[in-house]
Amino acid sequence: MKLSDVAEAIGLDYTGDGSIDITGVASIDDAARGNIVFLADPARKAELTTSKASAFILPEGISCEGKPYISTNKPLLVFTEVVRLFYPKPKPRGVDARAIIEEGVSLGTDLSIFPNVHIGKGAEIGDRVTLYPGVYIGPACKVGEGTTLYANVVINEGTTIGKRVIIHGGTVLGSDGYGYVWDGSCHRKVPQVGGVIIGDDVEIGANCTVDRATLGSTIINRGAKIDNLVMIAHNCTVGKDTLIVSQSGLAGSARLGNNVIIAGQVGVAGHLTVGDGAIIGPKSGVTKDVESGAKVTGYPPQPHREWMRIQNAIQKLPQMRKDLQGLLDKMDKLETEDA
To answer: Is 118 an annotated catalytic residue?
Structure first.
């Protein structure tokens, strides 16, 4: 593929020799002849002269003498479009004979269903869905068009998944919520009879769990992106375009607004609300509602700048203690002399 073809495919102009062959994509550190790479950080501009890449995707205002480039104000976004040119989705492979399809299942067109997939009674599978080996889809589930479920994903009964959803290996949707009641002698299980709803364009990482609701639905709204090793408890709601980073967890009935960012290893207590656009810093323990647009960190959560000042002060405590002890010793000495 020529650079001119790449530029045309993504709808942008290029500067320099458009006839140069582009054979693949790479990072600026690992690039070889024929590769196109992107530069997002202007501070690394000097590396352009030493890179072996044949062409670049550069931020507006940056050029590269001697090599062709595509200029854009969104280099990473453009680079993702270029990657798709060189790594297109594989063609549909059909339904493998070793898959188990129970009665009453509705199958769309252009499917890729691998060996050892199990689809339960009455499930609905949309067009262009890919189900990798070991996927289990329970009875009465719905999987929207263009969705991909990687190996060993478990979708339990009554779960609804939207369009263009990506769920990575080992994730379980629709397992029972953690609900028990003490009857005076033992913990009795509270029946979990609700469901799970996953909106369009959601991505869920590997080895995550999204529990079914006790009643009603646990809901992950459109465009939310969930990292690996995240736990979403029963009856939670995750807003549109919200990001949840690895090893975080939401307790039952927690509600995250739209465009929220939950950093790594955050815990959100049950029945709390985190408002639209809020950012929760890493390793925080959220024990009260967080207002829309707030940036908080810590346990309990505090405004991020205040938390940073506290952390800075904590690092100075050993020296402050030493200085204080020195002052106390001087005071004792003065009092002794006065006596």
So the answer is: no
- What pLDDT shows up at residue 192? 97
Residue type for 37, please? V
Whether 333 shows a pLDDT value over 90: the answer reads: no
DSSP letter (8 states) at residue 47? G
- The three-class DSSP label of residue 312 is helix
**Type of residue found at 274:** V
Q: 71 - beta bridge partners?
A: 58
Cis peptide bond prior to 300, omega within 30° of 0: yes
Backbone angles phi, psi at 57, to 5 degrees: -110, 115
Enter the tokens of residue 95.
């339904």
Q: Dump pLDDT digits (tens) for 104-149.
A: 999 999 999 999 999 999 999 999 999 999 999 999 999 999 999 9
pLDDT at 183 over 70: yes
Which backbone phi and psi does 333 adopt, to 5 degrees? -65, -45
Closest CA to 151 of 167, 163, 173, 139: 167
Residue 338 has pLDDT above 80, yes or no: no
- Of the listed 118, 234, 271, 304, which one is catalytic? 234
> How many CB atoms neighbour CB 267 within 10 A?
19
- Structural contact between residues 48 and 36, judged by C-beta atoms closer than 8 angstroms: no
191-195 long-range CB contacts below 8 Å, 24 or more apart? 192/234, 194/218, 194/234, 194/235, 195/158, 195/159, 195/160
Q: What mean pLDDT do residues 228-237 have?
A: 99
Selection from 223, 235, 277, 269 nearest residue 249 by Cα: 269
- 56-74 mean pLDDT: 91
| Cα four-point dihedral sign 146, 147, 149, 155 | negative
C-alpha 72/C-alpha 61 separation (Å) is 9
Label the pairing between strands 231-232 and 285-286. unpaired
The beta-carbon contacts of 91-98 under 8 Å, at least 24 apart in sequence, are 92/128
